[in-house]
Amino acid sequence: MKKSILDTLEKSIQVKTEFINHHAGAVEKCAVHMAETFKNGGKLLLFGNGGSAADAQHIAAEFINRFQMERPPLPALALTTDTSVITSIGNDYSFEDIFHKQVQALGCPHDMALGITTSGSSPNVIKAVKTAKKQGLTVIGFSGNRGELKELADFPFCVPSTVTARIQETHILLAHILCDLTEQLLFNHPQCP
């Protein structure tokens, strides 16, 4: 079992290292854009399915509450949490519309949308991303190394793996880095790059 544990750790580290080496510049640009969005009164809308839905909620909590420093809350909204909205849209229309209709209702041109799909192809995430782009939101895409999301996002972050667990682990690392950098940029943390 110990070998299996160490193998999993090594694979996770390899994927994260390759991802950061390839995307560091884009991560920095995305954090700057996020900070500007919040500074100008915009908000962050987040959505995904399953583990990615949980990640959307986790990331929203980091922005709303706090991450590494004491600071005012930042407006982030996980579109995965309102069961009445989700089930009414799913029942009256289709599961494919559960995020799209929320983006239509809540998204403004100065906002950002963060779509998360490990496959890069979840129909409800793709539809919501297309709606966000149509409404003038800046789109961040968290995916694996396949799928349509990477072609649609303004900031496509494609993890170089087809293993869901490795992709999700990298997504959370990326989210934590973006939170940290955004806090530093907005609140003049001494470690600001």
TrEMBL record:
PANTHER family, alphabetized: DNAA INITIATOR-ASSOCIATING PROTEIN DIAA, SEDOHEPTULOSE 7-PHOSPHATE ISOMERASE / DNAA INITIATOR-ASSOCIATING FACTOR FOR REPLICATION INITIATION
Gene that encodes it: gmhA
InterPro entries for this protein: GmhA/DiaA, Phosphoheptose_Isoase, SIS_dom, SIS_dom_sf, SIS_GmhA/DiaA_subfam
Further facts: The reaction produces a racemic mixture of D-glycero-alpha-D-manno-heptose 7-phosphate and D-glycero-beta-D-manno-heptose 7-phosphate.
Known catalytic reactions: 2 D-sedoheptulose 7-phosphate = D-glycero-alpha-D-manno-heptose 7-phosphate + D-glycero-beta-D-manno-heptose 7-phosphate
CC per GO annotation: cytoplasm
Record-given protein name: Phosphoheptose isomerase
Keywords: Carbohydrate metabolism, Cytoplasm, Isomerase, Metal-binding, Zinc
Signal peptide residue numbers: none
Cofactor field: Zn(2+)
Gene3D superfamilies, alphabetized: Glucose-6-phosphate isomerase like protein, domain 1
Enzyme Commission number: 5.3.1.28
Binding sites annotated in the UniProt record for Zn(2+): H58, E62, Q168, H176
Top-level taxon of the source organism: Bacteria
Main location, first listed in the record: cytoplasm
Domain SIS: 34-192
Gene Ontology BP annotations: carbohydrate metabolic process; D-glycero-D-manno-heptose 7-phosphate biosynthetic process
Binding site for substrate: N49, G50, G51, E62, N91, D92, T117, T118, S119, S122, Q168
Classification via SUPFAM superfamilies: SIS domain
Protein's organism: Desulfocicer vacuolatum DSM 3385
Cofactor remark from the record: Binds 1 zinc ion per subunit.
Similarity remark: Belongs to the SIS family. GmhA subfamily.
Localization per Swiss-Prot or TrEMBL: Cytoplasm
